[in-house]
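Lab meeting notes turned into a lecture example. A postdoc, R.K., suggested we walk through two folding results consecutively so the class can see how the record format repeats. The first protein's sequence and structure tokens come next.
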Amino acid sequence: MSTPKIWDDAVSTFGAAAAAKLAGTGQREAAIRAPLDLLISTIGKALGRPAVLHDEVSDFDRRVRPDFGVSIDGVVMGYVEVKAPGVGINPGLI
């Protein structure tokens, strides 16, 4: 099954924007936040479900503050935790 061209273009745009930002100075994790926001919002629009990323949304029930909360139609549908390229997470700490 092939992916729609809009998705391919969105991922290519993300890759180019992330690479350009990562080539500069600054924190590597922060560098990919704006390209990621653009990627998710573009894909959401392509699916007919515009998504909005909200920075540093606190989830008090789980006692976490992920980098983004993703809302669709004003309802938080999920979360995104951003890590710099090459940095993993330790699920044992969650």
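The second example is placed directly after the first for contrast:
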Amino acid sequence: MKLSRAEVEHIAELAKLGLTEEEKEKFRGQLSAILEYAEMLQKLDTEAIPPTATVLPLQNVMRSDEVAPSYSQEDILTNAPDADEGCFRVRAILE
């Protein structure tokens, strides 16, 4: 599927990209190649393949929640530009 120059300009406008004439020609070829490849994939017979969200086995990637040594509150607040009653003090962003 070959894209026309007008289609590339329309896509660039939707993406709010300012393209030079050289870039329009370059992207016309690249986008056309991507669409041709996607068209080839559409021709594959996938009737025997069940729908799936991932091809990788699911596993929990979270580490266990264990108590570990940490910095003290005083050590953390020594680098704070402004602290108040053991907390970081920041400027209000809402009225």
